[in-house]
Amino acid sequence: MGLQQRFAEYFDFDELGTDLRTEVVAGITTFLTMSYIVIVNPSILAPAIANGPGPDIARSVPEITQMLAVVTLLSAAVATFVMALYAKRPFGQAPGLGLNAFFAFTVVLGLGIPWNTALAAVVVEGIVFIALTAAGAREYVIKLFPEPVKFAVGGGIGLFLAIIGLEAMRVVASDPATYIQFSPVFAQDPVAILSVVGLFLTFALYARGVPGSIVIGILGTSLLGWVASAAGFVAYSLPDDAGYTLADASLAPALGNLTYSAAGYDITPLVGAFIGGFANVDALAFALIVFTFFFVDFFDTAGTLVGVSQVAGFLDENGDLPDIDKPLMADAIGTTAGGILGTSTVTTYIESAAGVEEGGRSGMTALVVAVLFVLSLAVVPLAAAVPIWASHIALVAIAVLMLRNLVDIDWADYTNAVPAGLTILVMPFTYSIAYGIAAGIVSYPIVKAAAGERDDVRLGHWALAGAFVLYFFVRTGGVLGGAL
């Protein structure tokens, strides 16, 4: 039996209506759209480990940055391998944006918690997730999501992806008066112009039914950037307050963005550092930090799995993902492994929607992503070969396609429209999948009860709503700071 046939049997290609070529292209697409984390995650965590409280690992900031890049690749590979071989789902995993910022800027640099204690909190969160997933508790909670919220998650994630993508493409930026605006220097910025050209190239290829249209669009846009750079064009120099967070400032980033050294590949100071983080821990403060990591990761992951599965057609008639316990367990193992290796919470990536839209339906897609993460260890900043602004055109393309799922919502029923609408709107405007889900879940029992439809509301709906209210009190009420 050939290798291709073995893959086909193990990953059920025939049952899922896919093939090896489609899965490989989908895996490459997902990798390209989420590979920015190899550069971004170290840039966020390195200042906290270098300058924050905690053990001194006696390395320079560039060396710590490279160490974290290695750890990012390893944790992403481990988690995604588990997703591929155990859960057999086409979802990529890596340290999550937002959660890494909370780890670095709020917990370590803001509250003064040693960085190895923060890692200990991540490991505890992961172990709790493993236990809850094994007991079926996480699956039970996700099934409690009201139907309009489940159907709205995909559209909300689509808008969320659009904001991330358009910002990275330098098409939109923040504004103190309107919060967001069309780039005031768009016509002067080759990055923005090439991004839009690449986006419409991708749309055109997709409309013609060209296989691999998204990955072709990404690579074609990158090529345009390299050509423009060779021709002497340079990216517009943005002011400090331009409001771009992911967009790099060059047309063709080189592979040498990180400083290479043997010490940078020696990650032993980070691996297992969480063990020392349990010493002299304030129980209340530690519990609150674990709770915050836990809550955000739980609902981010749940939202991503439901939203991307809706695109893939995995959801059943009730809006549930069959055998969701397996991808949840992969996520839990990834978080635990990431904390042990020395990075913040690992989570399932919404960028997986890019690969799914390319036809990825099985764990083979995730296997390709994991292998590419491993291969990238040979050249740590390999992902920088594709500019962030080029890779993120995929997010905008996918965002447009994800909006089509909103037709499943019964908009004529106000008690469905309110939680669905809030879920969709709050996600992009708060930059959080979890907050969008929270808005939908909190509003659902309220409007249902007000409309006299109490039979549609279960005790679990009120319990979830109460849990979100408690979370927001802990997260925004100064409770964390007051516990220290």
From TrEMBL:
The keyword Oxidoreductase does not apply. It is found in: Cell membrane. It is a multi-pass membrane protein. GO terms for cellular component: plasma membrane. Keywords: Cell membrane, Membrane, Transmembrane, Transmembrane helix, Transport. The chain crosses the membrane at residues 24-44, 64-87, 94-113, 119-137, 149-173, 185-207, 214-238, 258-279, 286-308, 328-350, 362-383, 389-407, 419-442, 462-483. It comes from Halobaculum lipolyticum. InterPro entries: Azg-like, Azg-like_bact_archaea, NCS2. This is NCS2 family permease. The keyword Membrane applies. Pfam families: Xan_ur_permease. Its main location: membrane. GO terms for biological process: purine nucleobase transmembrane transport. Belongs to the nucleobase:cation symporter-2 (NCS2) (TC 2.A.40) family. Azg-like subfamily.
